[in-house]
Specification:
heterodimer; A: 292 residues; mainly alpha; MetI-like fold; 2 domains; 12 helices; 75% helix; 3% strand; flat; B: 311 residues; 15 helices
Chain lengths: 292, 311
């Protein structure tokens, strides 16, 4: 009887302890995001206030300034803001880069999974090594080349270079998905008289479609979040969100409200996606090593 | 039975019967299908060789004519103090980051695996820090660290640390970037370990219970060995990524104050684009690449060994 009570007490302690530990850890993980979102709804006076304001009257002025690309400054009138441009640049570059990678990468992953040819693993690891090499190793020479062939600060140049981010991901993740499709399915189709490529389209493609969606989304997020490539190879015509944000923080503090709104616009869609896609991302984040 | 399995990389499938006996006429097919992808990325192999070539010249942006100097840059760099400083910064950063991320990530994964109320509430948000661009994350932290209005300085003011210098002092700069790094990437480890926990087979635990094994004994001798492959994958990814970290350090202080945070990549960037000396910058980055290559080859072999021991 007494023993039971001790046991029960211990259980309660462990439940409370676990919950408390989780609250502390997630306060650490979530506070900066919540604080940032809060900041984007503050007036500049509230942002610069000391002590910092935890409760305030929210304003949409920062978002309005970002979207209309005009900022009202007391006594000065309105000045132009070039944040949305970065948004569109990033969207065009990342989306096109992912589409190109899916078109090139899904067939490549099929070849690396199904065919047993000489040098297969070497080729696969060549793709993987771009995920692991220091970016500047290829970015600096590409900078020389782009200057010679006039690809500096162009969409085409950046979309091409972004293949270094998106293509290895698509190939390695999709390879693990194709590995999971029993080859008998395809063979049955071939025996029925279909050519191999029809069998692939009819059988394999529908099965791996969710995998394509998940890996494309993850590759898109990585492209969206990139900083170094555009820093070196882009300029005014292709400046991305990360570049615009970096410029904003070096500007005077009066623009911090707008910068917060810009930052929130840059990460909110991504965060919304990832809450729902989290369970599909484990395989992707480990480049196909952990299947789930 | 578990629905999660680990795909080991090379050759596991090819050692058994080939997945698909390829008919003769399809022999050329893989290369045809791979061709465009190889071309898109393979062209980048050329820049790699250009890198090696330029690292053996005395090329500067201000000096259009340059000469081949052999290994002179390598010798100069390997005998300079700045290089060994970079080595120290790079490895200190990576070692501390990976240890804390692994430890905190495992703790977080175990807590989330309890399925307690807070675990259910917070689990969908585990991924968020990882999904924000590391550069943006760094700027968010910078805003919170502002000496004039930063909320972190406000919290610290209760402990008499209102003027905590964060990245502006050489004494606290490393701590500051590590804080951002750990915030961003601990969820990566937690997510992978959590996937491992969800896939643990039930039988060994039942056996341990029947044998009357204690909690700690079960953890040490059953749970941990079964989780090792998952932890190993997370560590390999985190170690390699932290050895080449750029965004967080550059976004926080551009490697400063002075050269406090100049790891390989930041130093190579600064040398190339601020001081206009790409030959030296490239030499740095090639040395960085060799280090990562050696470590990752070793780690991947170790990881395969661990895995074959378990399966």
């Amino acid at each position: 009887m007494e023993n039971n009570q001790v046991q029960e007490k211990k259980n309660w302690l462990s439940i409370i302890g676990t919950n408390l530990a989780l609250i502390i850890i997630f306060a650490f993980f979530l506070f900066p995001i919540i604080w940032m979102v809060g900041m984007s709804f503050k007036t500049i006076d509230d942002i610069l206030a000391w002590p910092p304001k935890f409760f305030f009257t929210p304003t949409l002025a920062n978002f309005k300034a970002i979207i209309t690309s005009q900022m009202e400054l007391r006594g000065v009138g309105s000045i132009p803001i070039d944040f949305m441009q970065g948004f569109w640049h990033t969207l065009i570059i990342s989306a096109t880069a992912v589409i190109v990678s899916v078109i090139l990468g899904v067939p490549a992953s099929y070849a690396l999974s199904r065919f047993n040819f000489k040098g297969r693993e070497d080729i696969a690891f060549t793709f993987l090594s771009f995920r692991f090499g220091p970016e500047l190793l290829v970015i600096i020479p590409i900078y020389f080349i782009f200057q010679k062939i006039n690809l500096m600060d162009t969409y085409a140049g950046l979309i091409w270079v972004y293949q270094l981010i998106t293509l290895p991901m698509i190939i390695w993740i999709m390879r693990s998905y194709v590995d999971d499709v029993p080859v008998d399915f395809e063979d049955a189709c071939v025996i029925d008289g279909y050519p191999r490529w029809r069998a692939v389209f009819k059988i394999v493609l529908p099965i791996i479609r969710p995998g394509i969606a998940a890996s494309a989304l993850l590759a898109f997020i990585y492209a969206w979040n990139n900083f170094l490539f555009a820093l070196v190879l882009g300029s005014s015509k292709t400046s991305t969100l990360t570049i615009s944000a970096m410029k904003f923080i070096s500007a005077e503090a009066l623009r911090y409200g707008i910068m917060s709104a810009g930052i929130v616009i840059s990460f909110l869609p991504i965060l919304a996606f990832s809450v729902f896609a989290q369970r599909y991302f484990v395989r992707g984040l480990s480049m196909g090593a952990i299947k789930r | 039975m578990s629905d999660t399995s680990l795909a080991l990389q090379p050759d596991e499938t090819s050692q058994e019967a080939p997945l698909n006996p390829i008919p003769r006429k399809e022999k050329w097919a893989p290369f045809l299908i791979l061709g465009p992808a190889l071309l898109a990325v393979g062209v980048v192999m050329i820049p790699f060789f250009i890198s090696v070539y330029y690292s053996m010249t005395n090329y500067k942006f201000t000096r259009p004519n340059f000469n081949f100097v052999g290994l002179k840059n390598y010798i100069n760099i390997l005998t300079s103090d700045t290089f060994w400083h970079s080595v120290k910064v790079t490895f200190t950063y990576a070692a501390i980051a990976v240890s804390i991320e692994t430890l905190l990530g495992i703790i977080t994964a175990f807590l989330l695996n309890t399925e307690r109320l807070m675990a259910k509430i917070f689990k969908p948000f585990l991924l968020l820090p990882l999904m924000i661009a590391p550069l943006i994350t760094t700027l968010i932290w910078r805003l919170m660290m502002s000496p004039e209005f930063g909320v972190l300085n406000y919290f610290l003011s209760f402990f008499g640390l209102r003027d905590f210098p964060w990245a502006t002092s050489p004494d606290t700069a490393m701590f500051t970037v590590l804080l951002v790094e750990i915030w961003t990437f601990t969820p990566f480890v937690a997510l992978l370990v959590l996937a491992g926990l969800k896939s643990l087979p039930k039988e060994p635990f039942e056996a341990a219970q029947v044998d009357g094994a204690g909690q700690w004994f079960t953890f040490k001798n059953v749970t941990l060995p079964l989780l090792t492959p998952y932890i190993a994958i997370a560590v390999v990814f985190r170690l390699i990524d932290s050895l080449r970290q750029f965004d967080i350090i550059f976004g926080m202080s551009k490697g400063g104050p002075g050269d406090t945070l100049m790891n390989f990549q930041v130093f190579a960037y600064t040398t190339t684009f601020t001081y206009g000396n790409p030959a030296k910058g490239l030499t740095y980055i090639i040395i960085n690449w060799i280090i990562i290559y050696v470590i990752s080859t070793y780690l991947v072999k170790y990881w395969q060994k661990v895995q074959s021991r378990i399966s």
